[in-house]
């Protein structure tokens, strides 16, 4: 810990390294086109490490990761944090067990968000991969992935997410025409949830193409 900064800089370096490695892999899958997407890790009980706004997520370096407090304000940096910072910090503030938030813009996520915006959710049932979500021990379960309307008004979007979180266990949501948010207790957990949503949404789209859903 330095005198000047109110967080552990060594821990920040560790988390930045982890974000960089994981986000490069997600980018290589085509899930972060055109500088889209944002990623964060809980740093401590007041701060998160998050991607700087507008950076090419496929080419992240340590300088592309900065610190914000849970009100979304930059701490110890002149950079602008992700435009969607509030959607990350609201989760860290409310749930001490959440340690990682991942947001991507894959084609599958975006097409699914458009198709299911009217229904307000994607119903996922009968898939073995539902066991990938923390707490699920059987495929005999179901999950409604919410789809929220897109807006540039982040406080309004965060308020809608907050209302959904009141309902209980939730590991992600879609934003119409935009992409997917997923989270977990650490990077591995959040990434498993993100990948499971991507796979399950892909299955639902495929079933629709085949006229089965
Ligand atoms: C060019 S993508 C539009 C903004 C967006 O949806 C996104 O995920 C990236 O925003 P950021 O400010 O985090 O770079
Ligand atoms: Zn986005």
From TrEMBL:
It catalyses: 5-(methylsulfanyl)-D-ribulose 1-phosphate = 5-methylsulfanyl-2,3-dioxopentyl phosphate + H2O. Coiled coil: none annotated. Pathway: Amino-acid biosynthesis; L-methionine biosynthesis via salvage pathway; L-methionine from S-methyl-5-thio-alpha-D-ribose 1-phosphate: step 2/6. It holds the Pfam family Aldolase_II. Keywords: Amino-acid biosynthesis, Lyase, Metal-binding, Methionine biosynthesis, Zinc. Binds 1 zinc ion per subunit. InterPro entries: Aldolase_II/adducin_N (IPR001303), Aldolase_II/adducin_N_sf (IPR036409), MethylthioRu-1-P_deHdtase_MtnB (IPR017714). Residues 17-205 form the Class II aldolase/adducin N-terminal domain. Zn(2+) binds at residues 103, 105. GO terms for molecular function: methylthioribulose 1-phosphate dehydratase activity. It comes from the Bacteria. Its EC number is 4.2.1.109. SMART domains: Aldolase_II. Its cofactor is Zn(2+). Belongs to the aldolase class II family. MtnB subfamily. Catalyzes the dehydration of methylthioribulose-1-phosphate (MTRu-1-P) into 2,3-diketo-5-methylthiopentyl-1-phosphate (DK-MTP-1-P). This is Methylthioribulose-1-phosphate dehydratase. The lineage of its organism: Bacteria, Pseudomonadati, Pseudomonadota, Gammaproteobacteria, Lysobacterales. The gene is mtnB.
């Amino acid at each position: 810990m330095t005198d000047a900064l109110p967080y552990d800089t060594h821990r920040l370096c560790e988390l930045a390294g982890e974000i960089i490695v994981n986000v490069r892999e997600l980018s290589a899958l085509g899930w972060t086109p055109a500088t889209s997407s944002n990623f964060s890790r809980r740093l401590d009980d007041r701060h998160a490490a998050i991607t700087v706004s507008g950076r090419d997520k496929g080419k992240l370096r340590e300088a592309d990761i900065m610190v914000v407090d849970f009100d979304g304000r930059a701490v110890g940096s002149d950079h602008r944090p992700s435009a969607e910072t509030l959607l990350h910090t609201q989760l860290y503030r409310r749930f001490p067990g959440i340690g990682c938030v991942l947001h991507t813009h894959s084609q599958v996520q975006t097409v699914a968000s458009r198709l299911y915006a009217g229904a307000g959710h994607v119903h996922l049932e009968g898939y073995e991969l539902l066991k990938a979500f923390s707490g699920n021990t059987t495929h005999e379960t179901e999950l409604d992935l919410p789809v929220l309307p897109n807006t540039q008004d982040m406080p309004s979007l965060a308020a809608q997410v907050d209302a959904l979180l009141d309902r209980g266990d939730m590991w992600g949501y879609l934003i119409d025409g935009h992409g997917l948010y997923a989270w977990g207790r650490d990077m591995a957990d959040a990434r498993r949830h993100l990948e499971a949503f991507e796979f399950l949404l892909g299955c639902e789209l495929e079933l629709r193409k085949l006229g089965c859903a």
